[in-house]
Amino acid sequence: MNTVAPAATVAAAADRLRITEIFLSLQGEARDAGWPSVFVRLTGCPLRCRYCDTTYAFHGGQWLGIDAILAEVARHGVRHVCVTGGEPLAQKRCIGLLQRLCDAEYAVSLETSGAMDISAVDPRVSRVLDIKTPGSGEVARNLWSNLPLLTAHDQVKFVICDRADFDWACTVVAERKLHERCDVLFSPSAAQLPARELADWIVADRPPVRFQLQLHKVLWGAEPGR
């Protein structure tokens, strides 16, 4: 029996990513908050943050070629596209997807943890880098060599679980001068810290950061695909 796959099959397999969902919603976070956006959620994540709200993206999904992904994105008819997860950069072909989206002249953002190398990401992409706090349970996974790569086109996010996280994050921002590189965002962990408490700390201590809530959670709760 011939066990060599046809060339077309091999090519198609080399172009595929495992996708949990592709959907249209409002961007709920960061610089593009409020814009109608298509979300491309890739399956899989090597981290297990205590506050994760997308555990359904850890497993499953379906394989789609990049052409099929772009066709589904185009069907929604909006300019902003967010590639998210899980952890999208855990799939190597994510780099090619990001490039193709930029080539198609979308405004592309990437939601990625601080644990994955961002050096190969197309510079046209706005990288939203989630630095893991001690309260996440994954602080040891932060890849600090990412920080010198950040530009004004990028953004850094800290999810704050408690006062210790807040103090730690403020120290990281100050010592590494992150606010001089890009926008820095502090978000409350919804299950652990009242939003008003974090807002009060920011007002009192005045770190060079922006407070943010997850707009989509305010509007639709934890419903997947919204």
Automatic annotation (TrEMBL):
Keyword Chloroplast: no
Molecular function as annotated in GO: 4 iron, 4 sulfur cluster binding; carbon-nitrogen lyase activity; magnesium ion binding; S-adenosyl-L-methionine binding
Binding-site positions, Mg(2+): T54
Gene3D superfamilies hit by this protein: Aldolase class I
UniProt KW keywords: 4Fe-4S, Iron, Iron-sulfur, Lyase, Magnesium, Metal-binding, Queuosine biosynthesis, S-adenosyl-L-methionine
Highest rank taxon of the organism: Bacteria
Cofactor needs: [4Fe-4S] cluster; S-adenosyl-L-methionine; Mg(2+)
Entry keyword Nucleus: no
Pfam families, sorted: Radical_SAM
InterPro entries per the UniProt record, alphabetical: 7-CO-7-deazaguanine_synth-like, Aldolase_TIM, rSAM, rSAM_QueE_gams, rSAM_sf
E.C. number(s) listed in UniProt: 4.3.99.3
CDD domains xrefs: Radical_SAM (cd01335)
Co-factor binding comment: Binds 1 [4Fe-4S] cluster. The cluster is coordinated with 3 cysteines and an exchangeable S-adenosyl-L-methionine. Binds 1 S-adenosyl-L-methionine per subunit.
Binding site for S-adenosyl-L-methionine: Y51, C52, D53, G86
Family membership noted in the UniProt record: Belongs to the radical SAM superfamily. 7-carboxy-7-deazaguanine synthase family.
PANTHER family per the UniProt record, alphabetical: 7-CARBOXY-7-DEAZAGUANINE SYNTHASE
Subunit description: Homodimer.
Protein name: 7-carboxy-7-deazaguanine synthase
Lineage: Bacteria, Pseudomonadati, Pseudomonadota, Gammaproteobacteria, Lysobacterales
Gene (UniProt): queE
